[in-house]
């Protein structure tokens, strides 16, 4: 990664992951990415220390944003590992009042989608549970 990219787009970086602003136009204000340093196609392949640090980042973001009546929604979309070997978690910041509506729209869009989700319509809800225990179950 070149220095100009880092100076312009990388918000924070440690030895396990980096927080990056999108280099292209975004869907919403406040959109950013969490990208592990380790090359892997999805989060189930990450080591436990990286997962723990990303989980801690999520908790810290929720606490920090909650003070200004905002929340964050993070989405990891799996891509064919032969075409894209590096996972990205897309994060979107919203007003807390919008989050419950967004959950409804998201569930509705998944249930109405035809091609991509036709064989994979299982929606996992992770509130109050450990994400990776459910995904690997």
From TrEMBL:
<dbReference type="InterPro" id="IPR036265">
    <property type="entry name" value="HIT-like_sf"/>
</dbReference>
<dbReference type="GO" id="GO:0000398">
    <property type="term" value="P:mRNA splicing, via spliceosome"/>
</dbReference>
<feature type="domain" description="Cwf19-like C-terminal">
    <location>
        <begin position="10"/>
        <end position="107"/>
    </location>
</feature>
<protein>
    <submittedName>
        <fullName>CWF19-like protein 2</fullName>
    </submittedName>
</protein>
<comment type="similarity">
    <text>Belongs to the CWF19 family.</text>
</comment>
<dbReference type="Pfam" id="PF04677">
    <property type="entry name" value="CwfJ_C_1"/>
</dbReference>
<dbReference type="InterPro" id="IPR040194">
    <property type="entry name" value="Cwf19-like"/>
</dbReference>
<dbReference type="InterPro" id="IPR006768">
    <property type="entry name" value="Cwf19-like_C_dom-1"/>
</dbReference>
<dbReference type="GO" id="GO:0071014">
    <property type="term" value="C:post-mRNA release spliceosomal complex"/>
</dbReference>
């Amino acid at each position: 990664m070149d220095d100009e990219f880092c100076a312009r787009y990388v918000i924070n970086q440690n030895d396990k992951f980096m927080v990056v602003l999108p280099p292209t136009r975004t869907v919403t204000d406040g959109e950013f990415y969490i990208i592990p340093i380790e090359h892997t196609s999805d989060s189930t392949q990450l080591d436990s220390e990286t997962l723990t640090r990303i989980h801690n980042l999520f908790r810290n973001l929720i606490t920090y944003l909650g003070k200004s009546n905002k929340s964050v929604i993070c989405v990891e979309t799996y891509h064919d590992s032969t075409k894209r070997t590096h996972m990205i978690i897309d994060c979107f910041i919203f007003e807390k009042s919008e989050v419950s509506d967004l959950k409804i729209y998201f569930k509705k869009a998944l249930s109405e989608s035809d091609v991509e989700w036709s064989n994979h319509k299982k929606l996992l809800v992770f509130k109050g549970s450990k994400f990776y225990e459910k995904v690997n179950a």
